[in-house]
């Protein structure tokens, strides 16, 4: 008997497409199995969302917020279960999975504030009548999530979309269906009306059927640049649909003139190796001065990085790094390391596959200063590329030599240097003496270049969840006090 894994029109039903499974990448065991939503089921879900839209949008913000707050209560009540589910499906240590659930809960108040501050209503008197600015939901929107934050990042689209009055079709990553199932169960328990949120589990075919469906008014995507670009092409010639793309990065971190070597090394490690290097904001390129201070920082970095505890998400003594998402992803990162070595990279700390049957890998650091034609790809794992420099402006130019532009950082005791860096660097998140990961949900979050399409998420998600409507209104028709020239009444 097939498991009911799709949530359509308030009912759990079995998928009618091909079967797929989700694995615990740290223990190599199956944690979920189900069938994908077929194109016909995608169609039924879109119709259900369309039917549910008006009655949801017609509720007041307070009424919608009541349901969203109940979802927040469910998150608090099920915090441990959800954290364990995230840990099992991604390999993320429990301490970190708990912070992901915390971010989901925190998103509710932030989204209410953002809705009011960025898309609220305004009223201005006019000589005759009043001018109003109001916002309306787009209608039916699709949300596509990535595997690396299977709870927090889809939630970052879903909560503001629902608050604004949209109904939602949620297509999670096929690598993390169990987290999505649990999250949607919590929405159901919170009392969300049938059809307002539909879950469409599946692989690429389900994603394609949903993205290409005529009945959606918009799509909010978080994932790889490759998929984002594919969607952008699919949406070409459809200006009536809103597309928000949150994509990858190839993020630089520059160090110059720091007195506290350990503090610098700490921020480098947090930037490069948190979540086993599987954050869009992770530092991929580290620019270190080719001098004695650079040597000192590098030596200390190698020392601390080689002692990073890598382990199982539920180890009693928690590791800093858990496993990667899959054995294939782990092998892919080892291939990248081998390819960089071939191009002239010198491994300073070799990344190792710790157990071929699981996705546990150790962190790697490779000096790529001698690679002339460095590939501009996002390497989504714990491999930090080091470049030594002699000139600060040349380091900034090298840091900007990417088609991405998500996050960037400077570690330096010099405020002047930071001012200069800030003016020149091209990225949507620019930090000084802080890790470049761990962005706040209370700020806008988005990148330039191949990292996004200028529709920042997090605090600015409200902007793409509703459109502005300007009105001038008078309660009855009146002749204007002053007629246009040439008119007689
Ligand atoms: N900028 C951000 O906010 C942000 C946040 C997290 C992750 N990311 C990026 O996400 C990537 C990792 O996530 P991922 O591997 O799950 O991304 P992905 O692009 O492989 O998948 C994202 C979603 O798109 C769907 N999808 C894939 N191909 C599709 C297609 N052809 N048509 C329709 N849907 C399709 C997937 O099923 C999944 O739901 C990294 O590149 C990372 O940098 C970006
Ligand atoms: O993997 C990409 C997200 C990384 C994470 N960013 C956020 O959580 C942004 C805030 C939000 O979306 O609410 C990070 O910077 O570590």
Walkthrough of the structure:
The chain is of the alpha/beta class and 489 residues long. The protein has 14 helices and 21 strands. The protein has a seven-stranded mixed β-sheet, sandwiched between helices. Strands 9-8-7-10-11 form a five-stranded parallel β-sheet, with helices on both faces. A three-stranded antiparallel β-sheet has the order 5-6-21. Strand 3 (19-24) and strand 4 (29-35) form a beta hairpin. The longest helix has 26 residues, at 94-119. It is globular. It starts with a strand and ends in a 16-residue tail after the last strand. The site of nicotinamide-adenine-dinucleotide has 28 residues, from helix 7 and helix 8. It is an enzyme of class 1 (oxidoreductase).
Quick rundown:
Its EC number is 1.2.1.71. With 489 residues, the protein is of the alpha/beta class. The protein has helices at 39-58, 61-77, 79-90, 94-119, 152-163, 177-189, 204-211, 225-234, 261-273, 292-306, 327-343, 392-399, 415-424, 461-465; strands spanning 4-8, 11-14, 19-24, 29-35, 122-125, 130-137, 140-144, 167-171, 197-199, 218-222, 242-246, 251-255, 283-289, 346-349, 364-367, 383-389, 407-411, 429-432, 444-445, 457-458, 466-473.
Record keyword descriptors for this entry.
alpha/beta, 14 helices, 21% strand, globular, binds nicotinamide-adenine-dinucleotide, binds the ligand O=CCC[C@H](NC(=O)CCC(=O)O)C(=O)O, arginine metabolism, N-succinylglutamate 5-semialdehyde dehydrogenase, oxidoreductase, Ald_DH_N, succinylglutamate-semialdehyde dehydrogenase activity
């Amino acid at each position: 008997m097939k498991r009911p894994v799709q949530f359509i029109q308030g009912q759990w039903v079995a998928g009618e497409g091909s079967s797929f499974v989700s694995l615990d990448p740290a223990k190599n065991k199956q944690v979920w199995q189900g069938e994908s939503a077929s194109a016909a089921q995608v169609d039924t879900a879109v119709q259900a969302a369309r039917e549910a839209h008006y009655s949801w949008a017609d509720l007041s913000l307070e009424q919608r917020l009541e349901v969203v707050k109940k979802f927040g209560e469910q998150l608090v009540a099920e915090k441990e279960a959800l954290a364990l589910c995230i840990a099992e499906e991604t390999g993320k240590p429990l301490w970190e999975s708990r912070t992901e659930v915390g971010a989901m809960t925190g998103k509710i108040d932030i989204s209410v504030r953002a809705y009011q501050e960025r898309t609220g209503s305004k009223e201005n008197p006019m000589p005759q009548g009043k001018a109003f600015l109001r916002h309306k939901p787009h209608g039916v929107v699709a949300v596509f999530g990535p595997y690396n934050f299977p709870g927090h990042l889809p939630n970052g689209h879903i909560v503001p979309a629902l608050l604004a009055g949209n109904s939602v079709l949620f297509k999670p990553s096929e690598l993390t269906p169990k987290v999505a199932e649990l999250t949607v169960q919590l929405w159901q328990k919170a009392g969300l009306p049938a059809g307002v949120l539909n879950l469409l589990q599946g692989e690429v075919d389900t994603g394609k059927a949903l993205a290409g469906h005529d009945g959606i008014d918009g799509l909010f995507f978080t994932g790889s640049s490759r998929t984002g670009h594919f969607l952008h092409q699919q949406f070409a010639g459809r200006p009536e649909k809103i597309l928000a793309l949150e994509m990858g990065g190839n993020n630089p971190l520059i160090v110059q003139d720091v007195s506290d070597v350990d503090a610098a090394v700490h921020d480098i490690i947090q930037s490069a190796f948190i979540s086993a290097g599987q954050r869009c904001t992770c530092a991929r390129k580290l620019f270190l001065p080719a001098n004695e201070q650079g040597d000192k920082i590098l030596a200390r970095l190698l020392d601390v990085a080689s002692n990073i505890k890598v382990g199982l998400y539920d180890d009693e003594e928690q590791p800093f790094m858990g496993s990667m998402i899959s054995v294939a992803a782990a092998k892919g990162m080892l291939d990248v390391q081998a390819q960089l070595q071939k191009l002239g990279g010198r491994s300073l700390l070799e990344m190792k596959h710790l157990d071929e049957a699981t996705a546990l890998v150790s962190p790697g650091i490779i000096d790529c200063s001698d690679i002339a034609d460095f590939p501009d790809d996002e390497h989504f794992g714990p491999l930090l590329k080091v470049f030594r420099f002699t000139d600060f402006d040349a380091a900034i130019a090298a840091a900007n030599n990417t088609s991405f532009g998500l996050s960037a950082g400077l570690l330096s005791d010099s405020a002047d240097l930071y001012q200069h860096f800030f003016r020149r660097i091209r990225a949507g998140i620019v930090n000084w003496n802080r890790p470049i990961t761990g962005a706040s949900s209370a700020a806008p979050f988005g990148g330039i270049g191949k990292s996004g399409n200028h529709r920042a998420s997090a605090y600015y998600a409200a902007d793409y969840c509703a459109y502005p409507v300007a009105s001038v209104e008078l309660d009855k028709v009146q002749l204007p006090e002053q007629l246009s020239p040439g008119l007689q009444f």
